[in-house]
Design goal:
294 residues, alpha+beta, 3 domains, Uridine Diphospho-n-acetylenolpyruvylglucosamine Reductase, domain 3, single chain, Uridine Diphospho-n-acetylenolpyruvylglucosamine Reductase, domain 1, Uridine Diphospho-n-acetylenolpyruvylglucosamine Reductase, domain 2
Length: 294
């Protein structure tokens, strides 16, 4: 296989931050992805499977291995009595899934309006908003499992096998499980009602989130019974800047790239937030984002 060399990862993340990948490959099919992982294993290369690059902070030095960006995005709608069964590949952009669902008068994805990233990434982190999450509609997930002897086999994980939790799943804790595709079930509803709900969600998102700047979405998970954003704001950190990175003035659980931010700037802000929240409230904040190359 032919891999590209020294590809900037900043171009492939919503943060627009990060150094180069030593090797880079775009997988357009499941077979491409499986073959690339096999090659990486044979060459004893570290590898990272990249989706839409949201919820990700890449180190300034980059990643000393192979980044496989998956773009497998085939989607099929199969009619059921009460709605539709959707079989979609992991590289499908969430936005496309939302828009296609609305066109068919299907409810269940309204919460994901304007959430960047891919289906695979959403499943891995159990993405959610407005009281709903991807776990609510997942029936099963097709997974590539890499075993200790580097062999590969595909498996089907039912919803309960995915061990979904708040912004969590089994895939977040086992890098040997690579999501290939998923089966989703959505229900029929009046299209106007769906569109109305989406407009309300979008209005709220625009009002409360810094959509005008590159970011990785929410940086921290909300501790049980608390809002991470409110805790950060009560520590007086709203608007705090370190070089080109800033704790958003709109929502304190967002760190935005003002234009020239480095990963080290974001890392310093994250450490500062965790330290101040721990000092003031005795609460340990846990990151929602993933780190690469640190």
């Amino acid at each position: 296989m032919k891999f590209k060399k020294n590809v900037s990862l900043a171009k492939h993340t919503t943060f627009k931050i990060g150094g180069p990948a030593k090797y880079f490959y775009i997988a357009k099919t499941k077979q491409d992805l499986i073959k690339a992982i096999k090659t990486a294993k044979e060459l004893n290369l570290l590898f990272f499977v990249l989706g839409g690059g949201s919820n990700l902070l890449v180190a300034d030095k980059g990643f000393d291995g192979l980044v496989i960006k998956y773009q497998m995005s085939v989607i099929n709608f199969l009619p059921l009595k009460a709605g539709f069964k959707i079989v979609a590949e992991a590289g499908l952009p969430l936005e496309k899934l939302v828009n296609t669902s609305v066109e068919k008068g299907l409810t269940g994805m309204e919460w994901a309006i304007r959430i960047p990233g891919t289906l695979g990434g959403a499943i891995r982190g159990n993405a959610g908003a407005f009281g709903s999450s991807i776990a609510d509609i997942i029936k099963e997930v097709e997974v590539l499992e890499i075993t200790e002897n580097s062999s590969q086999q595909t498996k089907i994980f039912k919803n309960k096998d995915c061990k979904f939790g708040y912004r969590d799943s089994i895939f977040k804790h086992n890098s040997n499980l690579i999501i290939l595709s998923a089966e989703i079930q959505l229900k029929k509803e009046n299209k106007k009602e769906i569109q109305k709900k989406m407009k309300e969600h979008l209005k709220q998102r625009k009002k409360t989130q810094p959509l005008g700047f590159p970011s990785a979405g929410s940086i921290f998970k909300n501790p049980k019974g608390f809002s991470a954003g409110e805790l950060i704001e009560k520590c007086g950190l709203k608007g705090k800047k370190i070089n080109g990175a800033q704790i958003s003035e709109i929502h304190s659980n967002f760190i935005v790239n003002l234009g020239q931010a480095k990963a080290k700037d974001v890392e310093k802000l994250i450490k500062l937030v965790k330290q101040k929240v721990k000092q003031k409230f005795g609460i340990e904040l846990g990151e929602e984002i993933q780190y690469l190359g640190f």
